[in-house]
Amino acid sequence: MNDKLKNNSFIRQAGILVIAGIVVKIIGTLYRSPLSAIIGDLGNGYYAPAFNTYLIILTISSYSIPTAVSKVVSQRLALKEYRNAQRVFVCAIYYVLVVGVIASLVLFFFADLFVEPNSAKVLRVFTPTIVLYGFLGVLRGYFQAHKTMVQTSISQILEQITNATVSVLAAYLLIRSVGNANANTKAVYGAAGSAIGTGSGVLVALLFMWAVYMLNRKGIYAKIKRDKTKHVETYSEIYKVIILMVTPIILSSFIYNANTMVNQTVFIKMLIHFKGMTETDISTMFGVFSQKAVVLANIPIAIGAAMSSAMIPTISSAYAKGELTSINDKIASGIRTTMLVSIPAAVGLAVLAEPIVWLLFPQKNSVLLTSNLLRGMSITVIFYQISTISNGVLQGIGKVNRPVINASISLIIQTMVLVPMLIYTDLNIYALVIATIVYSFSICALNQLGVKKYLGYKQEYLKTFIAPLASSLLMGIIAFGTYEGIYYFINSNSISLVMSILMAVIVYFTAIIKIGGVKEEELIGMPKGYLIIKLAKRVKLL
Prior knowledge:
Blueprint: H1 3-63, H2 65-78, H3 82-109, H4 111-114, H5 117-125, H6 127-145, H7 150-177, H8 183-226, H9 235-274, H10 279-320, H11 324-351, H12 353-360, H13 367-396, H14 401-424, H15 429-455, H16 462-490, H17 493-514, H18 520-523, H19 529-538
């Protein structure tokens, strides 16, 4: 198989995760609309700190397991050491069991130390999910190491569908169960219902992945029987490798997520102590930011996360064989493919922020605020995409400490920006947007410098950034004009938005091909690329 075919295969596998990631984000966004209507901005405000704290504990215990398992197992599979690969899998299962149980107990008994009292009640509901997610992470990482993303993608979609369904239903039933209780109590119960949905989704995904593993077990053990590897690693050796691999990734992921935690803590504490605001008012404001604006901005960011997940085992295998040219080609293809979607997505979010918010979160008292926050957050889509991919590259080549250092530096910089803004200005929630932009840009730049240092990677700009940006700006102008024009005549936000998005897709697709931003050989490597090429040729674009 030549390098171009290998590269196309890598992009195709990444594309499977990308599509799944986007579907997951869309489902997650759509269910947030009825959920927000049920629990309100106050309920979102209690849920967000609990969820962010849960993510921190999950990161420390098992969130990094898929990446670590994928990397360690893929290295052994590349050398056809099937027996050692299976022993890594078994060790990882026991590792997440022990660490997950300890983390769950800490979270349950010390919840009040992490968040405010009302959020602590919600936080305790998350505790069983930590153990379940550990097992799920091991199975996902194991199959990703085999360079097949289908199982992970399906499990992610099942997880989110279950999460959406149970969250809305549980929130509704729990709020009804407290009858005529005050708004504060209803908000807590509604937020707890959403937390139950998260755990239910993880459980369903775990059951699916375990079923897939059992179906493949016969083939796995057949390879192990044929394995002629002389050195069979001991369990103590494997645990040492897992711990050495997981620890830096945990630190990196911890600091990535700590950014949200630090922002949340600084924001709440500063406004309480320096501005004299109440927990209820602050929680309502923070709920709009974290559960509406951030949720919408995170939809396209799924692309970078999927590309990074697909890159790690591929780059790890290539690095073990010394194929540096192949690695740099994959980095270039990964970033270019991601930017083809991310840049127009960022422009679209900025231009159509208010119509999108009206469609998904039509609570009148927060539409304008959410729209303004989303416009500000749109630029972070591009920075986070690049930093996520470069983070995966650095982990894939074994430079796992570099992302930790970069994330730490970025966290310090953004905190130094955030604190004085909260103390000396009236920006309040907008200060969080500015701090997030600073953080995303900083970590993007530092990670890219790391990739250049260790791999000699030189970023191509014209096709990767300039062409998509030029096409996206034209798209944004046309999309905005289309929306305003149609809305003027029919006064329907949903119809105007759908038509403007369709027009945006047509304009961008036409412009990016006409200016040479993407070639036929690049399209063929994407999921359903042949259909895109067929369509482009039919309308005389190729």
